[in-house]
Each structure stands twice: as structure tokens, then as C-alpha cells.
Amino acid sequence: MDSTALEVIFTAAAALIVLALRWWTQHVSIQAAAASARTQDSASTLGWQTISDLDCLPNEAAESISSIALVLDSSHVELTVLKRFPRLQRLALSSPFPLPKSALALLAGIPALTAIDLRKCRTVVDANNMIPSLCDALDIYNWAGSLSTLRELLLPPVCAIRVGSIAKCFPRVNVAVVAVTRPVRLGDVIQLRRVAHDLTGGGAHEWRSEQSIVDSMRTDDHRQMVVAEPHPDGPPIDSQYAISLRDVGRKGDAVYWLGVCRT
């Protein structure tokens, strides 16, 4: 047998060993999670797993899991496996693909789920590449607004959606009057953005403020609001609300919604 044939055989054998070790590592991880869920009285956490990993988890273990970090390795992956986890409270997703709209409906149907982290997930399609079955930023915004039990939604910047603009600023008290074009709710995460021009001739860039969690919104007559609604048919002041912000920016800055953090 010549050296080339031996090299092919050794390469194939090495590849099989790597695959076997990878399978064994996943198998041990799953069994450890199952054992933990069976032996602990408190709910358990599963680190980064794939759909196939979750499918292999015994039912008695799945019923005790409260937190899952899930890797989606395909654009056609269905999240129906999550229905096996009735106590699931926290979910983190990692994926280079946009989420299908069907995933939002499924997640809304998990009764205990209150915290979702999509920062490692592409989440939405590009603005110039609309696909009806996949999520865009407006889908995520509308879905989050419909979930009364959602306490935390962490999103990548690409999911930001404009909800208004700055009408007045009061930097001494960290309050800005925001003219809203979409509903803003207590606990929403918002960010100010503007196109800033470099006076040295370096061109324009987008300035972004620190993110703020909305914890106070008042009308012109000082009524505290839970939801700031736009009123396009009324006078402009009917759609303006005083909101506490970390950075009040400048008049004319765009206001973007970027998730939920309700403690």
C-alpha cells in the first residue's frame, strides 16, 4: 500500500474520531443536564444547545428547565421543540438567520417565558430585502407590544424602529419632550440618533445616545402615563410626552425603540 493510500486512511480515521468525540461531548452534556434537572428541586439552566440536543432531552428533565441558550444552525429551523419546556422563563437565541414570523407566535404561546435575548441573533431581514415569511423590525416591535408578560427583550441594533422625535430638551432635569409617532410604553428601551457632520471635512456619521429605559412619561397636564400614544388627528401637543432620559439629545433627534426592560 503506497503512502497516498495510507494518508487517506489516516485522514478518514481522524475525521471519524473527531465526530465521535463531538457526539460524546454533546451526549455527556445532555445527560448531565438531565441528571441535574432530576436531582435539583430548583429549576435548571441549559447552556448553548442545538435543536437536536433539546430533542434528545428526557421529558422529565425538560419539565424542570427554566433557562435555555439555543443555537439555530439553519434558516428553516422550527422552534416547536420549546413546547416541551412548560417552565421556560428565559431564552437566548444565536443565529445568523432572520427569525420566521411563526417563531414569534410560538414564543408568545409559552406561558412562563418572560425574558428573551436576541442580541446574538440576526433576528430581522435587511430593509431592502423583504421576505413575507421572515421578521422585520416592525414585526418585532408590534409583537413585543402585544405581550403583557414580557419583562425583558434584548435586541441587536438592526432591530431599532423609529417611534418619534425630540420636540424640546430640559438637560438639567434629564427630561425630553418626545413627539411620538408610535406607542411608547413604560419599560421600553429607547435611543436617540442623529446624523452628525464632521466640521473637519470628514463627512457625516450617525450619532447614537446611551440607551434609556423609560420609567416616567407625563402629558402636558402632568398626568403619568403607562403608554404614550400618538394622536395624529389632534393638535401636536396631544402626541407629546415628557420622558426621563439618560441623554436628552437635541431638538429634532430621532427616537428609536430598541427592546424592553421592565423590572
Structure notes:
- By secondary structure, the chain is an alpha+beta fold.
- It is 24% helix and 33% strand.
- The protein contains 5 helices and 15 strands.
- Strand 4, helix 5 and strand 5 form a beta-alpha-beta unit.
- The chain is globular.
- The relative contact order is 0.11.
| Count of β-strands | 15
* Helix share bin: 10-25%
- How many angstroms does the end-to-end distance come to? 70 Å
β-strand amount? 25-35%
How would a crystallographer describe the biggest sheet? 13 strands, mixed
Low-confidence parts: 36-42
Average pLDDT reading? 86
Alpha-beta classification: alpha+beta
By DSSP (H or I, 4+ residues per run), the number of helices equals: 5
How much is the radius of gyration in Å? Answer: 24 Å
What is the string of helix and strand elements?
HEHHEEHEHEEEEEEEEEEE
Q: What best-fitting shape do the alpha-carbon axes yield?
A: globular
